[in-house]
Amino acid sequence: MNTSMQWHERLGQSIPWGSSTCSKAPSMLPEEPAVIVKGKGCRVWDADGKEFIDYRNGLGPITLGYQHPDVDEAIRRQLESGIIFGHPHPLEAEVAELLREVIPCAEQARFLKTGGEALAAASRIARAYTGREHIVQVGYNGWLNALAGGGQALPGQPSSGRGIPGVPAALGALHHAAGWNDIAALEQWFDHIGSDIAAVIIAADYAEMEKGESYYKAVRELTSKHGALLIYDEIVTGFRIAIGGVQQYFGVKPDLAVFSKGMANGMPLSAYVGSKEVMSACDRGGTVISSTFGGETLSLAASKATIGVYKEQDVVGHLWKQGEKLWGGLNAIFASRHIPIELKGFWPCPTFTLTGGAAPAVKERFFRAAYRNGVSLYNVSYVNFSHKDADIEETLERLDRACSELEGE
Fold first, then answer.
1. Kind of pairing, strands 341-344 and 351-354?
2. What are phi and psi of 259, to 5 degrees?
3. How far apart are the first and last CA of the chain?
4. CATH 3.40.640.10 region(s) of the chain?
5. Which family does the record assign (predicted)?
């Protein structure tokens, strides 16, 4: 048993699911790395020294690349002064001001550690502001908020219609699921309980994101008509589709939004932002949302540096350009080798989809072949700012070999 597999055994003995993050637990051993011990730029290494060109990027947070010098230096500098204090640190103001500058709806901002808890905070604010209790959810909004029967228990994995295990029926009854770009479903909820709906929370469907052009406008009109708030889950789309997320890209402003994965190049940080009027619902005298670690300084220092790189360099343009080069090239390989898989969606975060009624096993065989050839992928895969032309070309060569292996099976 190699070192990586030894770690896999130890993780399974000590941690349910073998990881604290469900989506990180390997399901394609022995091809998939059991553990990762190092990342540099756009590459990662397992405990046995095998290198992978990485497109998982920590499941999304690594937007600039592993060990990006500007971000790491900012963390080191702040570490010399301290990590957390019993009063606010100036970085809280500085990063909040940066968010106000780059996010269209952000008149005010507050910080937490994860996207899921920030979405829970946004839901509480919506309920406090409107005096209503029901939430309609579109897409996956994190495990903490996966409460609606028929919603997504994990990304792309619908729950049963009976609800989520561990969620009391009374709580689940306040949460309702609707599909992406399904205005009719939303209208039905508003026809049924419109005066009780506090907010609609939307996480985009990455494969069909272009439909946001009309969908966001329609939902904005619908929520405004019924006095409900509109909340965007920008955990993936923020600092990736555009610096200010889908609200900037499509030009439709929500009342509240949550950002996380693109904020700090891997450091744990989230922000819930919105209009000053709506955010006042969590000010003094309003609903209490508070976390000791919300103002932790290493993550805020990383975020300040990360947003600085975004502003000074065309990071988003790079993600679109390199994404098109890689995923468009891979689509051409799939087509030429008659493999029924296609990357669909916007180039910074497309989704692997099956075509022609192909069985899910086809995608699993491709992912296993990609791992064998030193490319780490995920259902939604990302380029980062460290993926240069040579890395993209090498990736396509490795994935072409992977596809040739599939032809031979």
1. antiparallel
2. -125, 150
3. 27
4. 69-312
5. Belongs to the class-III pyridoxal-phosphate-dependent aminotransferase family.
Contact 240, 280 (CB under 8 A): no
Between CA 109 and CA 120, with CA 114 as vertex, the angle to 5 degrees is 70
Q: Which residue has the higher pLDDT, 356 or 144?
A: 356
| pLDDT for 36 | 97
For 64-121, how does the pLDDT look when each residue is reduced to its tens digit (9 = 90+)? 999 999 999 999 999 999 999 999 999 999 999 999 999 999 999 999 999 999 999 9
Say what the pTM is: 0.95
Instruction: Give dist(CA 329, CA 74) in Å, integer.
Output: 36
CA distance 333 to 48: 30
Whole-number Å distance between alpha carbons of 391 and 397? 10
Tokens of 357: 């009624």
Alpha carbons 394 and 43: distance in angstroms, whole number = 12
Q: Looking at the domain 3-60+314-408, which fold is it? A: Aspartate Aminotransferase, domain 1 (3.90.1150)
Q: Comparing C-alpha atoms, which of 286, 280, 285 is closest to residue 255? A: 280
Residue limits of CATH 3.90.1150.10 in the chain:
3-60+314-408
Taking the CA of residue 225 as centre, how many other CA atoms within 13 Å lie in the half-sphere pointing to its CB?
Answer: 11
Best CATH choice for the domain 69-312 from the list 3.40.1190.10, 3.40.50.10800, 3.40.50.2300, 3.40.640.10: 3.40.640.10
DSSP code string of 36-98: EEEEEBTEEEETT--EEEESSGGGTT-SS-BT-HHHHHHHHHHHTT-S--SS--HHHHHHHHH
Which residue is it, tokens 């993936």?
236
What is d(CA 302, CA 300) in angstroms, rounded to the nearest whole number? 5
